[in-house]
User: Fold this.
Amino acid sequence: MPEPSATLMLKVCGLEAWYGESHVLHGVDFDVHEGEVVTLLGRNGAGKSTTLKTIMGMLKRSRGSVKFRGRELCGTSSRHIARAGIAFCPEDRGIYSSLTVEENLLLPPVVAPGGMSVPEIHQLFPNLAERRRSQGTRLSGGEQQMLAIGRILRTGARLLLLDEPTEGLAPVIVQQIGATIRKLKERGYTIILVEQNFHFAATVADRHYVMDHGVVVDMMPNAEIGAHTEKLNGYLGV
Amino acid sequence: MLIFGIPIQLFSTQIMLGLINGAFYALLSLGLAIIFGLLNIVNFAHGAFYMLGAFAALLLLEHLGINYWVALAVVPLGIGLLGCVIERFILRWIYDLDHLYGMILTFGMGLVIVGIFRNLYGATGLAYSMPAGLQGGYNLGFMYLPASRAFVIVASVLVCLATWIAIEKTRMGSWLRAATEKPQLTEAFGINVPLLVTLTYGFGVALAAFAGVLAAPIFSVNPTMGSDLIIVVFAVVVIGGMGSISGAILTGFMLGLVEGLTKVFWPQASSTVIFVIMAIVLLVRPAGLFGKQA
Amino acid sequence: MPHKQAAETTRQDLAAPLGMSRTHQVVMLLLVALVIAAPFALYPLFVAKLLCFALFALSLNLMLGNLGLLSFGHAAYFGLSSYAAAHAAKIWGFTPEVAILFGVLVALSLGAVIGALAVRRKGIYFAMVTLAFAQMVYFFSLQAPFTGGEDGIQRVPRGELFGLFSLRDDRALYALVGVVFIAGVLALYRITYSPFGQILRAIRDNEARAVSLGYRVNGYKWLAFVLGAGFAGLAGAMKAIAFQLASLTDVYWGMSGEVVLMALIGGMGTFFGPVVGAGLVVWMQNELAGFGAWVTIIQGMVFMLCILAFREGILGTVRQLIGRKL
Assistant:
């Protein structure tokens, strides 16, 4: 497995965000190097999904710094952030019921060269080729997750934000997703993963950040997870 | 020959007239449905854009000698562009607000547009001379079908069909459908949703303007031609349900036909039959015939 | 629609009559004083017209301000009641108070039927449905023999109130209109600031929650609708007797639009706003009477400006400035 390079791909500094009047992120700091898989762990309401959405520019009000390859993105519209080379896979998978599977797959525009071609994605996820003409939402949960991941692979984005990709899925599918993420890592993708299931996280990630009440409270390299299980359980309220 | 005690000539003529009305209902409710789907605004100014289309055709003919056929292509483009400008500079401000504000805003806009033209042209109708290619007609034996009327029906069907295909079957249509269903996520993929919104409004009013050009040689061109018509179109969209493109088209033609048939058997009820159907639909299936149950 | 009202708790001053807050008492007294004094400064029939439309606008705001539901075809109740009262006074020879009552009953019945269908839809659909039904009423009025078609019902006799007091004198008529108006305002006030009104506002702010609390939401909406129609009918019937005319204008969608303008420009989120709005719109129409289609253009522009830059309306803005509810 190629070592993640030392190149800083994403640097988040003092990130704050609001949902209406509600102050949900109180100064999030973390960084991600090129080729790394990094997770954001934490209990419900810690701000993990919100962090991904804020990086993606989907929150109306935010403040702080999000530097992607040195370029400041905080405050820009989500479509400019997408075109800069970041792709987002939402928690509910975001599969469109008014589009077929194939249309869902082809929807996100190509933002950079080097993305996977449709045949390559079909090879990675054969189900998507079979069910091409079905309505997007007729797929099973696992297949929808594959579709959600597959469509952002086509875009050429190199930084992928995955929001709870294993939620609600059967263990067998969870393993498949784990294998997929490891394959993507081999190809040099950089991934930020939001997860509640830290056992799964430990099988794919290089480092883990722990969030609580809208801030990052801890960071653990993957190798050290075993030693700190109790501390982790405390953070996650398990 | 008699059908249900009615001479076949009268019967078939009324069916034709019903289909013509239906053609306009379909085009107009299609535009309304497309705009509503993406912008969540009921475009109360839709009737005014229909009127603008007819007037544009008339003025182009009188002052620039531009004929009907060119007008059919050029006028919708021009009015569509106007729609884009209006969306960009006026409608954009109210997206975060309750739907009702959008309705009142476009209602006011319609008043302004119609008021300006009433000021300039008064309330009486102006005639648009029948273009050369549409004069005359076909003797079908059981009725006489004027070429102009046949053209209106065919043109409307073709445009509705083309619009449906564009939205349901093309790549760009998939962007529209995606932006309608999940606007925020669609933008997060890098698609320029605000631009899509602008173009959609423009396209919706272009459809209304196209209907206006079609109407020019058939009905007289006057500033209030869209005002009463649009309320019937509202009833059509309530019956069909505004969520469905194909629903808008089908409901429009169907109701035109029903109106035409009503005129044969019970003329006084013809102006209200669509509203009566609306009342029944509200009782039996509030989401509309093709709408999704809320 | 006014979301800020959700956060404000309606602190009812229990000491005051009708539970009126101090500010409201002041405004109410001011209003009564104006109603009494106005005919000495302005032409009595003009003020009577203003009061009729003010009542009309208040009736619209019952649903709009408290439920956030826009009855875009409110002219149907105003106009049909106007026809009914005119017909009752002229053809059946009823005394004015009975004619007006008849008009109100007609409006209530129409409101009950249309309301039952309209509340099955929400938001924009609701508005479009009410507009479509109003158009039905318009077409009916156009064709029905008793309405007199394009001419309307003219030379409606003012008659003698209770068979005793002749209303032919404009001042006597004005007295009637003034009294009915004040009574109407007080009644609407009582309805708005009552447990019923509070439930309406609760439905506006969180309908799902109201349902889960066991309220039959559609029933409340329907009742508010019928009341709104009834008061609109009262305004219309009074107008028919006062101006001795019932015409198609009264049922046309233009009239429906005008009353929305009154509520909007006066301040939908306030109780007294529509009165101010009605005053402004009626005055404006008077001033612009000779300018033909300009009235439409200016109305349209006022609509647009209000939505874009002046959503609170006149009294709404005043309220923000002085910090008290109006």
